[in-house]
User: Which sequence fits this backbone?
C-alpha cells in the first residue's frame, strides 16, 4: 500500500449543454478536500492523496469523486459534504452512505 | 463494482528541472492505452476505464500509472510496455512484475 486512501476528483469540463463536474463545483470540492487533508497532516505516503482527475465518465451524477482502493463513489454538493467524506471515510474508515453515487449513474 | 479496473495515468507537467510525467511520454502512454481498450471493446461500466489524472506524487519514477482497485503502481517506457499492462493485467488479471514501481519511489 502506498496510500491508505487515494481520492480522485473529476475536474473535467464538457461541452455546453452536457453534464460537467467542472461546472457544478468540482474545483471547490477538490480544493477544500486537499486543504483539509493537508492541514490535518494526513497527506503523503501511508496517508491520503487527494488527486485531480479527468472525466470519470459518470457525469450524470456530478460532481463525482471516487475513493480507492475502497472503490467508493461519491456525489457531493458543498464543503460540508466534503468534510463528512474526510472525517467519516478518509480519516474514520466509514463510508458516507447518504453521499454514495447510485450504481446506475453513468455518463 | 462500477469498473473492473480503472487505470489512472499521471499527465502532470511540473516546473523545468523537476521530474515530470508529461515530459517523459505520459500522454503517448495514455493515448495508446485508451485506444487499445476502446478497440478491444473493453471500455465502460463493468469493463475498464482509462483515466487522465493530475500528479500522483511519485514523480521520481515517471511516467507512472496506477491500476485500481488492485492498487498496482506501474512505471513504463513505451507502447510495448503499455501493451503488456493491457494484455496481462487489465485483460488477463495478472500484474506485470517487471514494470512495477518500486515501493520507495516518491516525488
Assistant:
Amino acid at each position: 500500500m502506498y496510500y491508505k486512501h487515494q481520492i480522485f476528483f473529476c475536474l473535467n469540463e464538457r461541452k455546453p449543454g452536457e453534464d460537467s463536474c467542472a461546472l457544478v463545483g468540482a474545483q471547490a470540492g477538490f480544493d477544500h478536500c486537499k486543504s483539509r487533508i493537508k492541514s490535518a497532516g494526513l497527506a503523503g505516503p501511508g496517508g491520503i492523496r487527494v488527486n485531480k482527475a479527468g472525466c470519470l465518465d459518470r457525469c450524470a451524477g456530478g460532481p463525482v469523486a471516487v475513493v480507492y482502493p475502497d472503490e467508493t463513489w461519491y456525489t457531493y454538493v458543498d464543503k460540508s459534504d466534503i468534510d463528512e467524506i474526510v472525517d467519516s471515510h478518509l480519516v474514520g474508515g466509514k463510508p458516507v452512505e447518504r453521499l454514495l453515487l447510485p450504481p446506475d449513474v453513468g455518463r
